[in-house]
Design a protein that fits this description.
Strand content: 5-15%
Number of domains: 3
CATH superfamily of the largest domain: ATPase, nucleotide binding domain
Number of helices: 13
CATH architecture of the largest domain: 2-Layer Sandwich
Shape: globular
Strand order of the largest sheet: 3-2-1-4-5
Structural class: alpha/beta
CATH topology of the largest domain: Nucleotidyltransferase, domain 5
CATH class of the largest domain: Alpha Beta
Largest sheet: 5 strands, mixed
Distance between the termini: 49 Å
Order of helices and strands: EEEHEHEHHHHHHHEEHHHH
Number of strands: 7
Radius of gyration: 24 Å
């Protein structure tokens, strides 16, 4: 689609601030709408009046951008892109933007659309959105469970009042029951969906990955659009290697970028450690990397990255885990 207008939308909990640029980068007066169904309809009517191709762009703001992004995607002659926060920030810095207000940010997003022409956004399936809400809530409950266990250990060592221990134990029991119920619901949702059920069956064929990790990975990667490469999957987890070399003075060892999702790296760490022990091919690969870099943690990070690449291939080609292809050169 050819675009005659670019609409930058700054999203917050309560309102949407919109700046529209034409093809000559001439800006219209900034508009504000409430971030609810009524405000969304008002914004859509404003964009439909342009009677031309519109490219709208916004940054992901927790979950507050999803409703307006879906509403824009459903319209004819309107494409919407969800712009990476990091990309938007660096673009603003490159433009020497010194002021940060909602209107300035909205105009910057419109200028980014015109300059970079990002790919239009594809909304995730409803089942994927619901599943991720479950898996992320489960992860938060597991963190709370861990914190309570630490509190209980400290309370025992400090000879705390009996009521403190009883309260902690009661809350731990409640959280354990809640986690079990949530995981059961997530598994039911996965098994009811043909694509996710197939993914689950393939994932648990990987040494070290059981139902808990498989459920979490499906919740995270099920939200992504189809067609992403394995390099993009790795980058989204922050496991892509980062090289820093410049001239003669800067030659640092390679590290993972850590610019993606930390929870995904956390979810893959234990499966990678188990796979190194249980699968001879994975163990050989880890030993080879460890001999090269001299550290166990970098080697495990390399195994995590390799596992994620293998998972991409398994889901892409609908094949179970094949240890012989993990480290074909020994």
């Amino acid at each position: 689609m050819e675009y005659s207008y670019y609409a930058g939308i700054d999203v917050s909990l309560a309102k949407l601030t919109v700046v529209i640029l034409d093809a000559n980068l001439q800006a219209r007066p900034a508009l504000e709408f409430t971030n609810d169904a009524k405000g969304h309809q008002q914004l859509l009517r404003q964009l439909r009046r342009l009677q031309a191709g519109v490219h709208a762009g916004l940054e992901p703001t927790n979950v507050y951008h999803l409703a307006i992004a879906r509403a824009l995607h459903a319209q004819r002659r309107i494409d919407v892109s969800v712009i990476s926060t990091t990309a938007a920030r660096h673009f603003a810095q490159a433009r020497m933007q010194r002021t940060k207000t909602d209107r300035v940010d909205a105009r910057m997003l419109a200028e980014y659309l015109e300059a970079c022409q990002p790919t239009p956004w594809q909304p995730p399936r409803d089942v994927a959105v619901r599943l991720r809400s479950l898996t992320r809530f489960i992860a938060s409950q597991v963190e709370r469970q861990t914190a309570l266990k630490c509190q209980r250990h400290s309370a025992k060592r400090s000879q705390a009042d009996l009521l403190v221990l009883q309260t902690i134990n009661a809350e731990l029991k409640t959280i354990e029951q809640r986690i079990a119920k949530l995981r059961q619901r997530a598994l039911q949702m996965i098994k009811a969906d043909p694509q996710f059920a197939r993914w689950f069956k393939l994932l648990v064929s990987v040494p070290g990955i059981a139902s808990v990790t498989a459920t979490y990975l499906i919740g995270e990667y099920g939200m992504l659009p189809a067609g992403l490469s394995k390099k993009q999957w790795v980058a989204l987890a922050g496991l892509d290697p980062q090289t820093r070399e410049s001239g003669k003075s800067v030659n640092k060892p390679r590290h993972i970028s850590k610019k993606g999702g930390k929870p995904v790296r956390r979810a893959l760490f234990l499966p990678a450690s188990i796979a190194v022990r249980r699968c001879a091919e994975v163990g050989r690969y880890c030993a080879k990397i460890q001999a090269r870099c001299g550290g166990k943690l970098p080697a495990l990070c390399a195994v995590m990255r390799k596992l994620l690449q293998a998972i991409w291939g398994m889901l892409h080609y609908d094949q179970p885990f094949n240890p012989a292809r993990f480290c074909p050169n020994g």
